[in-house]
Structure formats: C-alpha cells, structure tokens
Amino acid sequence: MSKSDPDPKSRICLTDKADDIVRNIKKSVTDFTSEVYYNPTERPGVSNLISIHSFVTNKSVDEICKEVESLNTGQYKLVVAEAIVSYLKPIQDKVSYYLKDEQYLLDVLKQGSDRASEISQRTMNEVRHKLGLRFKVKTRQKIKNINV
Q1: Measured between alpha carbons, how far is residue 92 from residues 22, 61, 87, 99 in Å?
Q2: Number of structural domains found in the chain
Q3: Is there a single domain that holds both residue 89 and residue 112?
Q4: pLDDT tens, 45-93?
Q5: Three-state DSSP state, 105
C-alpha cells in the first residue's frame, strides 16, 4: 500500500467503500509463502498488512501473529480488510454527516478564515513594530494608517 502511487488500488482512502477496501486488500502484493508472519525484510507485503492490522485494532504485532497463525495469506487478507472496514466506519459516518450539512461547513470555513485573519494581522503588526515601519495598509474594510 502506498499513498504516493498514482494507482488508486495502491492505497485505502478514508472515504473508500467497504467493497473497494476488501478488493484492494485482496489484491495487495504479498509473496508465495502462505504462512503469516512478520518479517519486514524478507516479507514486506505481509509485514505491511500486519502493521496496518496492528494499527487499526490497537493490537501488537505479536498478538496478531498468534491470532492468525492458522490462516494463510489469502485468508489473512480478508481479516485485515474486515478490521480496516470496521475501523473506518465511524470516521466515514462522521464525514457523511458533515457533508450533508453544507451550511455548517461554510460556517466552519468562515470562522477559520476570520481567525486566521486575526492572527495574521496581529503577527504583521508585531513585525511592523519590530522593524519600525509606518505606512498605510489596505484592509478589506478600509484603509488604516498604521502608526507603530
């Protein structure tokens, strides 16, 4: 799995559908050894899946390896896919909820913009003061004479 690869099948996005997640995990690159164990040097594909599984379940690599020792890599991929789908479900539900409320999103963007403007204005005033600059600055509302 690689977020920098242009191929959409090389990664899992937060908003991917469950079927897409399962398909991408099933097609993830592993090797021809069916046993599931962690060895990033010799088995980077399987080890990557174990690392992802560890992250989404908050289990250690050792715990996962013990739990799945009877599975082959094909079976294990389905376990990983299910864990990822479960992990992403509440995030996807929240994203869906917020995307349905366009006005809320616009309000959040406006508040963020206003706050960023306040902070940047204070910072620029401080810079001007420290540099001893005096000049007129055009703002959105009107022209102000800055006298620092």
Answers
A1: 16, 26, 9, 10
A2: 2
A3: no
A4: 999 999 999 999 999 999 999 999 999 999 999 999 999 999 999 999 9
A5: helix
* pLDDT confidence of residue 148: 43
The residue range of the domain holding 69 is 8-99
What is the C-alpha to C-alpha distance for residues 114 and 21, in angstroms, rounded to an integer? 38
What's the CA angle centered on 46, arms 6 and 92, to 5 degrees? 55
3: in domain: no
Domain identity same for 85 and 108: no
In angstroms, the CA 148 to CA 129 distance is 5
Please say whether the beta carbons of 50 and 79 come within 8 A. Answer: no
Q: Does residue 1 form part of some domain?
A: no
Does the predicted model carry a pTM greater than 0.85?
no
